[in-house]
C-alpha cells in the first residue's frame, strides 16, 4: 500500500506539473492575443485616420475647384459690368448724366 500511495503521489505531482505548464502556456497565449488585439486596434485606428485624411483631401480639392470656378465667374461678371458701364458712358468718358446736363 505504501508503494501504491507513493505511485499515486508521484502521478498527482506529474499531473499538477502538467497543469502548471498548461497555465503558463495559456497565460502566454492570452498575453499574445492581448498584444495582437492592441496592434489590430492601432491598425484600424490608423486606417480610419488615413481614410478621414483622404476624404478631407478630396473635399478640399472639391472646394478649391468650386472656388476657382466661382472666381472665374465673378471676374467675368465684373468684366461685363465694366463693359456695360463703359457703354453707358460716352466715348470721351462722360456719363449719360453729363450728356443730359449739357
Could you please describe the fold and organization of this structure?
The protein is rod-shaped. The protein starts with a helix and ends with a helix. It has two helices and no strands. 91% of the residues lie in helices and 0% in strands. The mean pLDDT is 89. The relative contact order is 0.04. It is mostly helical.
What are the key terms here?
102 residues; mainly alpha; 2 helices; 91% helix; 0% strand; rod-shaped
Secondary structure layout:
Elements: H1 2-88, H2 96-101
Quick overview:
Helix content is 91%, strand content 0%.
Main structural class: mainly alpha
Task: Figure out the total of helices.
Answer: 2
Kindly state the number of beta strands: 0
Largest sheet: none
**Through-space gap between termini:** 142 Å
**Principal-axis shape:** rod-shaped
- Rg, Cα atoms, Å: 43 Å
Helix content: over 70%
Query: Beta-strand percentage?
Result: under 5%
Q: What is the averaged pLDDT score?
A: 89
